[in-house]
Write the structure tokens for this entry.
Amino acid sequence: MRGRTLALVVALWGVLGITSVGAQTTLHVPRPYPTIQRAVLAAAPAGDTIVVAPGRYNESVYINKDLVLRSSAGAFLTTIDGGGQSPIRVDCVNAVVIDGFTITNGRYGVELTYCGTGVIRNNRIHGNGLGGIDAGGGAFHIVGNTIANNWAIVGGGISGGQSGGWTQVYRNVIAGNYASLDGGGIHFNGGNWGCDIFENTIVGNTAGRDGGGIYYEPWNCDCDNNVIVGNSAGRDGGGVFRSWTSGWVSTMSHCTIAYNRAGNSGGGVSLIDGGTHVIDRSILWGNQAPAGAQIGLGQLATSLSVLSIRDSIVDGGLAGVSVPSPLSTLNWGPGMSSADPLFVDPSSNDVHLRVGSPAIDATQSAFSVDFEGDRRRRVRTADIGADERAMHLYVVGQPRPAMPFALRVVGQPGAPVVAAIAPSATPRTPAATILGAGMFVVPDPFTLVPLSPIGAGGFTTVTVRLPAAFPTPTPFIVQALVGSRLTNPLALWIH
């Protein structure tokens, strides 16, 4: 399925003119086109690019052409406010790209029809009343977005699903969304179509009924390399609710599913009746439900369901799994453990692995990276769960004035840490190569800030509280030197 994903991406870029589609035009908003809709109307049927300058655009944009719509300065500086209508509506296109906007105050944030293809990326989608994205049933890639604090009947963050499509949802943060029925974070209904849900952080979403984090029915759909933490459902599947698979084998691999809650069954995962399911190389920990705190297999005493699970850590072991039907089968495979996975900081939903975690080097992996892009050690052994323990710099909490947030660095215990920080949204170009350390991308001028060395648990944390009058939005590029090696760069916006 990932091969199909790559092929579709290549095809989309070809249609969009990254290779060649003849003459192309770049149209600019607000000059000479005062609104985004005016630029769309002026664009050719295929191949044009619309570049939108920073600002707030109060409009509902209707797109029925193959084009690229992108901001020039990113989502924090460029907002489309739908005023109660969907800020972006896409209708039956062969390929469209929506890139780099804050999309808010709409019915859906982005409304996609059932016959389109395209890429929705690098957006902040929040405060929409029927959900963040309605993916319809097309072949859309939803990648690198923050989809937060939307609400709906089903699919508070993302909804979709009709015959014939194939939707890819990856590397998004899906947080704090609400559905009065099913799928607080994601809701994909059934049919002869497929989906891949991978490398996402799905946290703090709520469903009134089933699937606090994810609710999905499509026959051919995989859920891999996801962090699914702190979600809740009123009935079943606090983290994940997986419905019938109709002859397909449903797989869930390298997921960390922790601290979710359900009112009835399957605090971590609920697997509905009649399906065949495989869970491997995953962590299910600290989830809560009256039945099947970690996993609920089937819902009825007559259910005919099969679950095979291996190379995973399950809180409470077999006692954490509910199998209400004698007709259902639980295959408890090799490599199972009930040992504490030793997360870095459960209180902040930080499920990176500490030094000494039993998940480290405990399995093998078919995936090249973890949920945040760190390389997995495929040539030898890999880590169970979504996180591959590796040197990494990341933020914990919301970077806002007068509110505490933290910068955290994972590395080898005892290593000294120095952070470089610059007030910029643009990394150094070209990057500077530091022999033996890696690529340094923080632009000039930058400030060096010594941090505490990496502690015995394999991480160090610095808490930041900015004054209430700190200007927003303000961007920073941050990178750390841990011992003699550079971490990943971090784009940090104070907003």
